[in-house]
Amino acid sequence: MTPPASAEALCATNPTTNPSTPGHLDGSRPRTGATFAALRVPNFRVYVAGQAFANTGVWMQNIALDWLVLELTGSPAAVGIAMALQFLPILLLGMHGGMLADRYPKRTILLVTQLCSAVVASALAVLTVSGRITVPAVYVLAVLGGLVVALDNPTRQAFVGEVVPARCVRNAIALNAATFQTTRLVGPAVASALIATVGTGWAFAANALCCVGPTVALGFFLRTSELVRTPPPQQRKGQLRSALRHVAERPHVAWTIALVGVFGTFGLNFPVVLTATADETFSGGASLYGLFNVVLAVGSVTGALLAGGRTGTRLRTILLLAAAFGAAQAAAALAPGLGAFLVVLVVMGASNLAFQAIANSSVQLWVEPAYRGRVMGLYVLVFMGGTPLGGPLVGWVTEHAGPRTGLALCGLVPLVATAAVAAAIAARPAVQRRRAPLPA
Prior knowledge:
Elements lengths: L3 H6 L13 H4 L15 H32 L2 H28 L2 H24 L5 H29 L5 H29 L3 H10 L1 H10 L17 H10 L2 H17 L2 H12 L4 H23 L6 H18 L5 H29 L5 H14 L1 H15 L1 H25 L1 H4 L8
Helix pairs in contact: 3-4, 3-6, 3-7, 3-8, 3-9, 4-6, 4-12, 4-16, 4-17, 5-6, 5-8, 5-9, 6-16, 7-13, 7-15, 11-14, 11-15, 11-16, 11-18, 12-13, 12-18, 13-15, 14-15, 14-18, 17-18
């Protein structure tokens, strides 16, 4: 059997490079590594297999929930509110979820969150199939689901660093993102078929069933003896403040997280703008909205795989990908027909996922492992926590000014933010060249 050290060596073409040092600081040029190297680690194969089931269910539920709210209300703004309520707990509790991920066994936390996700999905299924679903009930269950995500997401982000050796982390995160987006090819198609044939409620029921996959994988097939465990921090006051100081001392981490926050707040309101685009701009239904998600996923898988082949990162690369995504979404607002719109969706998906995968893996590698859970809690907080602000705002603009204006807003704000960050970096080069001494 190949030992974990051999699998680690396959994850980088330059094993002497310190993964904690950003490429834009040490002057190293990023190289293309083995795109699927992390899959040589048995635990990662088990983990990804379980996530494939869970993510398929998540996409089915996302499509069904968005369309259910639109059917019940006829309002894109209501879709934005439902989306905001799902992320409100993250805004309030995101870093606390990361602190729990640092403090307690991550595998145990994920088993609990999968059970809770299944309960929420089952409640949605029962209420919808029985015809007793109401908008307030959807909103309440959206908040409960958000509470689960506030604990699950930072734990899941940090757990990848325990499933694979250190040099495999960047590749593993990119492949995990590619898996998430590959299921986007299946989930929306299945959800659209279920909605059109047996009803929206059965899409929620299918998601509850999909929660069995990661539960079985984590509970019975993961080799716990091979996990790369991080010693928990001492339980004392000021743990959240110490994580914030840790980020503040690393300007490259702070800039990346700030840019991710702008994207999460304004750039990624796809449920709001794409439902309205399918319904109003192109006079389609749930099937067209599902097609939009499938096409977006095709580009996303491509972007994630391209990101997975990189062994180093410059902050400049992150900025270029961010600008490309903002420009693509602004261009989608000007697409003259459905064919052109679908082409731009592919570009949006590729630039979006390449940006997300590289930003996520870079932040995890640029911080010390003992802080990873709390830093990823902050990352998730700014990435998803801004949705309660951006979702209703984009929904209001989309409802009153039209889907094309909503798309333009979602593209131009990240584009302007990227330009502002680039200008700030150019104005303070000495700060950006500052190197923080981090362990390998």
